[in-house]
Design a protein that fits this description.
Number of helices: 8
Oligomer: single chain
Helix content: 10-25%
Shape: elongated
Structural class: alpha+beta
Largest sheet: 8 strands, mixed
Strand content: 25-35%
Radius of gyration: 18 Å
Order of helices and strands: EHEEEEEEHHHHEHEEEEEEHEH
Distance between the termini: 22 Å
């Protein structure tokens, strides 16, 4: 099921022996477009300290209670490595968290979850292929000890979207598949150009993110985006909507191979 990341922000993380804290942000990989970590504010019991939890260890998302469960104790989280979540998270920082909990890092598993909104979660088990350049970027990220392209969703919200022929709006939200934490779409508010209209942009069309100028570049024209299917918060992004969307852009459908 696709969910707005803004709706999940504020969810409670529940440990074996009580509440750990609340979700304040998400760190996603700008190569694979998968959410790798949740930033959790532990509140007063750890003096406002933030901790990182990989999305892969979280239990079921309970939308009625607005919470996730995780098979950890509060003491385990308290003793975990202290990561400054306001700074870029390096591979070494990630490794220290995985080592502490005894988890297997995603970059050593030899398993790629899909990304670009075409993983096994929504499409019935088929992992789509990705462009060769993206595969090379992923491989380089796995080999490197540098920052593995982790970026804050909270930071990118508000970035301007720059089409092939000019700006078209700004990032308002992300739509994420809860089964595998893949980002399917960026929600774009185009009100400065076309009042009242919001549209979805696929990560597949993103050619780069300029962190200095707060821009997301895409490889489609403004007119193409303008004429795309409209989106609002009440829209159910189901197979029917996605079929219409991907037919319009001439893209692969969820669960299909390129």
């Amino acid at each position: 099921m696709l969910r707005n990341t803004s709706a999940i922000k504020g969810y409670t993380i529940v440990a074996n022996d009580g509440h750990l804290g609340t979700v304040t942000d998400f760190l996603f990989d700008d190569v694979t477009w998968l959410v790798r970590w949740l930033v959790v504010d532990t509140g007063t019991w750890l003096s406002g300290r933030n901790v990182l939890l990989p999305a892969s260890v979280l239990g079921h998302l309970d939308s009625e209670r607005s919470e996730f469960s995780v098979r950890l104790t509060k003491q385990e989280v308290k003793d975990s490595p202290n990561i400054d979540t306001k700074r870029p998270v390096s591979r070494q920082m990630e490794a220290s968290v995985y080592d502490y909990y005894g988890w297997s890092p995603y970059w050593t598993s030899g398993f790629y979850m899909g990304g670009y909104g075409y993983g096994f979660g929504y499409g019935g088990g088929t992992t789509g292929s990705i462009p060769m350049q993206r595969e090379e970027d992923i491989a380089a990220s796995r080999r490197s000890d540098d920052d593995p392209h982790l970026r804050s969703i909270g930071e990118v919200v508000g970035y301007h979207i720059h089409a092939a022929d000019g700006e078209i709006g700004h990032v308002e939200d992300f739509l994420m598949e809860e089964a595998d934490w893949s980002i399917h779409y960026l929600v774009v508010d185009t009100k400065n150009w076309w009042p009242g209209k919001k549209v979805l942009v696929s990560p597949r069309s993103v050619t780069g993110i300029d962190w200095t100028d707060n821009l997301v570049d895409i490889n489609v024209s403004r007119q193409k985006v303008k004429a795309s299917p409209a989106y609002d918060g009440n829209t159910t992004v189901d197979r029917t909507y996605e079929k219409k969307y991907h037919n319009y852009y001439g893209e692969v459908r969820p669960g299909s191979r390129l």
